[in-house]
Design a protein that fits this description.
About 0% of the residues lie in helices and about 35% in strands. It is built from one helix and 28 strands. The strands form seven sheets. It has a four-stranded antiparallel β-sheet, with no helix packed on it. It is globular and about 50 Å long. It starts with about 55 loop residues before the first strand and ends with a strand.
Amino acid sequence: MSRPHHKRSRRPVVLGATVVAAALAGGLLITLPGGASAAASGLADDFNGDGYRDLATGAPGAVAGGKAKAGAVVVNYGSSSGISAARHKTTSQSSAGVPGTSETSDRFGTELAHGDLNRDGYGDLVVGAPLEDVGSDVDGGSVTILWGSSSGLSGGTAISDPNASGHDRFGQSLAVGDFTGDGKADLAVGSTGKDVWIFKGGFTKSAGAAGKLRFDAQIESGAYPRGAVQLAAGDFDNNKTDDVVVASSAGNFVYLGATTGLTLQTEAGTGYADALTVADFDRDGHDDLVVGTDSTSITDPTAKGGYATVFYGATAGVDTTRSAVFSQDTAGVPGADESDDLFGATLAAGDVNGDGYADLAVGAVFESIGSASHTGNVWVLRGGASGLTGTGAQSFNQGTSGVPGANESSDLFGGAVHVADHNKDGRADLSAAAAGENSDDGAVWVLRGSTTGIKTTGAVNFGASSVGIGKSGNDPMFGDAMSGS
């Protein structure tokens, strides 16, 4: 089976319990009504400090600085009316103050993560460009922190690769959390090597991280996919220090964080996981881990079209003896389990109905609907006192009543998903992207949360051109990645 060419579903950068200029030759920022708050909110994904959570989306195929596929990122700002296309800012390596230069096929914006890294009250955005050439190092990869401010993202700082000769694609996976227990947000960065680097909190705009440490993960040398394909952060043992999950071809390994360093705790599921996310679905104080297995082998009879497994947190960390598997064959989950749907290719978590329990969004980018193939679909599963359940699950695609657009082949709706409360009503909204929409131009949909779950009334939809990204003979793939998914 051929995998989706965009495959930027790997965004396991949900924050754990402890931590929660011109672009493309002229980015746009619409000023907030009344201006930004004098005191920044401190929310990890509030890049302009006005108290509303923002949405960061990657367009790694965008033209920037006249260079094809140089890449860009777009922030759409939250407000009392939620997300809109007009309220945005687009940033690339051609933007003022951003390190580096827009070059052909850098694919800036392939990976995204967020957190308040310099503790100024504004959320900062971490951008990975794993295909960037660094000097003579082809596909050496780069990581850039874009700093939040009262005017949104402004300027940036490059994070140097400490082991450039030892691996490629530095920045192919990212996660933010307090892994050392000092109350400061740290940044974890993966590459094609077994070495995972923790850049320690106390970041400054001039000097970057306060220090760094390396740990070598359980990664098979030379196996495909290479290295730490995904990273996730969460406080599974509830010790007020975040833990790290490393997904690779060897499996998904949990490392417990502590002031003394990271220690291997367990393996949660085997084989390559295409997505990870973290949340406390049963509200017991322990974060829980969800592993998306979007394609199965002939030796894995769990589900033909992919599945998502939740492993619940406990005093010792991730408890692999307490888990549950969800697929389109699960009672209450709409649809049918079919080969190559890629259910579980994308994951995100948040409380969509305001009941205090986190819910789970699951994307299946190859789901075919009617005569259209690979249109894509997103489900929302409910959290509760007993954890996740298929009962009451919701399903959305471009053919769902109230959702703008139409199901078309190769749209890949749900190729990125995101769950956050953008209008501060206490209920998280669902964002779903389709990087394949309109021949890989890409588009984003935002559906509101409500007391009954996600609703389609008032759904918002916008494409690449609405946020200043032109096709220019290339495929911008707006929506290929979302921060916090």
